[in-house]
Amino acid sequence: MAKDPLAEAGLHFDELNKLRVLEPEVGQKTTELKEECKEFVDKIGQFQKIVGGLIELVDELAKEAETEKMKAIGARNLLKSVAKQREAQQMQLQALIAEKKMQLERYRIEYEALSKVEAEQSEFIDQFILQK
Amino acid sequence: MLCHVTCLATVAVLFNDGTHKELVSSVGWTTPDELFSCSEDHQIFRWNLLTNETTLVVRLPDDLYPVDLHWFPKTVGGKKQGLAEIFVLTSTDGKFHLGSKTGRIEKSVEAHRGAVMAGRWNYDGTALITAGEDGQIKIWSKSGMLRSTLAQQASPVYAVAWGPDSDRILYTSGKQLVIKPLQPSAKVLQWKAHDGVILKVDWSSVNDLILSGGEDCKYKVWDSYGRLLYSSSSHDYPITSVAWAPDGELLAVGSFNTLRLCDKTGWSYALEKPNTGSVFSVAWSADGTQLAGACGNGHVIFAHVVEQRWEWKNFEITLTKRRTMQVRNVLNDAVDVLEFRDRVIKASLSHDHLVVTTSLQCYVYSTQNWNTPLIFDLKEGSVSLILQAERHFLLVDGAGVYVYSYEGRLVSTPRFPGMRSDILNAQTASLSNDTVAIRDKTDQKVIFLFEALTGKALGDGKPLTHKMEVVEIALDQCGAASDRKIALIDKNRDLYLTSVRRLGREDKTNKIGTMVHTMAWNDSANILCGIQDVRFTVWYYPNAVFVDSDLLPKTLCTTPPQPQGLTSPPPHPAPTGEFSRTPHILNYVGTQVTVRRADGSLVYSTVSPYPALLHEYAGSARWADALRLCRFAKDQTLWACLAAMAMANRELTTAEVAYAAIGEVDKVQYINSIKELPSRESALAHMLLFSGHVQEAESTLLQAGLVYQAIQVHINLYNWDRALELAVKHRTHVDTVLAHRHKFLQDFSKQETNKRFLQYSEGVEVDWEKIQAKIQMELAKERERSATTSVRSSVASRR
Predict the structure, then answer these.
(1) Between chains, do B606 and A131 touch, taking CB under 8 Å as contact?
(2) Helix (H, G, I), strand (E, B) or coil at B661
(3) What interface predicted TM-score (ipTM) does this complex get?
(4) Which of A102, A121, A124 sits opposite B571 (nearest CB)?
(5) pLDDT in the model for residue A111
(6) What pLDDT band is residue B567 in, cutting at 50, 70 and 90?
(7) How close does chain B come to A77, measured CA to CA in Å?
(8) b/e string for B263-272 if b means 16 or more Cβ within 10 A?
(9) Which of B739, B736, B740 is nearest to B727 (CA)?
């Protein structure tokens, strides 16, 4: 086959018969590659953006989780201390109740004594009336 | 004594603004309305309760951590101190500081190694005592010069207190309490008091009781001999502070978030649970109405004593607020509210009158009319005791004792040298319509007696001296002033009765009971009630002991131990001492006795109304009525009372009947023989003999010139020496005496050994016939004489 002398010199014509240094095929492929590369870079960029957003979100979530965790621990501790507080309160109330109980016992004894006095007095009155 | 406080509660007020940043370590009152507090934030604050202002007095150096603060005593020996007020402040660096009211630290003295735990002035302000962590106790002069190191021990001393006369101190030694007299040779008393380290102690100057609190979470009350009177149940937290009220009736106890108000016998009136942290120190204001506590959370807590109640007959009075009282008439449920300008300090309700003292005035209400009280100003504000009698009342303050009439007139101011009125209480002072009795503090055997209307000492001015220390006195309330009797309980718990006014008679103090813990006279008749050992006893007619002491046991009414559970053990554990079981009689009004049990409950007991009626009849000489009453009641005790009353009033006919009723035949016979006596004088003499007053009987007879009868009395009593002495002195009947003596010796087949009789028997011939004739002659003479005197008197009466 006869070689294209131009081709040998590294010159080619494309379809529009413009003079080219590269083979039209290669040129085309190069352009294609370029296009593809551009696309790739774009995609990568997009990906980075998405991932960044994701990371941010996760970070936020982590933070929130942390505070929630702290809150939970706090609440748990509070719960424990409330139980203790209740215990203390209960003890105080118990002491007060014991006090009142003692007072009640005193009143009960006083009441009994007074009832006895009443009985004695009515007995005395009855006797007095009978004897008269 | 006659009215009683039934219930108490505290109202707590918390001051939150401007308080200390750190725990408050101690508080001290200067006036009833001004308090100083010191704290670990190096500040001393002054709290004014009238204006509710809090001012910073001083900022102490940063390395000074105060521990204890105590003000110099205000009254010294009844006299008010004119000196600038100073306080002692002890600190953790081993120093104590004397500071003035303005906050200036006048002097700092290096006192101990380690912290100085307590600093206390004695009652007369002549000495200061400090107790240190190094186990030493040191006494300092008023100006801060070291006098001596009183004690030294291996463990820290946490608290110290002065004894009532400032001659002894009480301090802690681990779980033990130690009482050490200042005199080096005197005996030290030491005992194990708590199961944990003792943190605080206090010793009341009024009732001589000791209060201690410790890490075993208990507080205990002791007497000054170290006997346990009360032990509380275990608290939840250690007891961090204790304090006696100035009048010795109440005590305050502080613990973690706890403030408790108790009676002096230990049982609790009220419990408060303020949010304060541990109460490290409590202090009573001088008038005993307010209480301040130093709290662990930097607060200072104030409490007031309210809800006090007084009951008398149908009236019930409650102190509802500090300045308000509510009077309730139980009969018709009528309620009156009494308002006062100042805080109520003391009140007393009895004998139809209510006496209330505030810080400046005294209000006297009649129970008939609650609207218009009689008001007069008081010289000194803090009245510590009110006693009432039917006609007047007695006020006691730091400076003296005053008797006022219910019209508000100052009647008298009894006083004796060395009197300390600030420590008088209802047990050591007594008032009746005509007499004031006060037991001496320095010599507790001595009772000073005063005419209530003049304030002068009774009789020759000599006080009544008992053979033993007296712990309680009480004057009877009724009858004539000349018959006034005083009942007293001595240290051995024996009850004695004696006359207040002695008209030349011999000193006679008669024992009428043993193991008596408490007693009270009736308000309307001279009936005494008391608790003997475990039995409730009523002396219906205590005077019987002076008339016929054999009769006294028959005039008693004793109730067996169980009534109303008077002696059942209180709910608190470990009441070992007998005192803690014994109740206290609060009053005896009409027929009702009110008793406070050891656990604080009130019990009532009724006494038969007949004895009081009998007293009334005897008092107005209605003997026929008295006899009718006894016949109606058919009670041996009552008959015995009547017998004694009749004899006391020389009412022989009634006495004869009464003695017959109780089966005392011998006495009936003797009374009959008295009735047959020819003359009034010898009848009187024999009645005196009946009561055992031989001396007086003799002098009565001799005064009437009845020498023979006097001699015969002694012969009958086998008082040979005195009979002979009289016979020789009056040169008559020597032979009679000798004859009787001879007969007596013969009857018992004995030999004469008495030298005087041997001497006289030599010169005298004994002739029974002659003697009998002489006796007959004497009797005839007496009869004749009494006949003429009676004729004379009847003639005189006819004219």
Answers:
(1) no
(2) helix
(3) 0.80
(4) A102
(5) 92
(6) very low
(7) 22
(8) bbbbbbbbbb
(9) B736
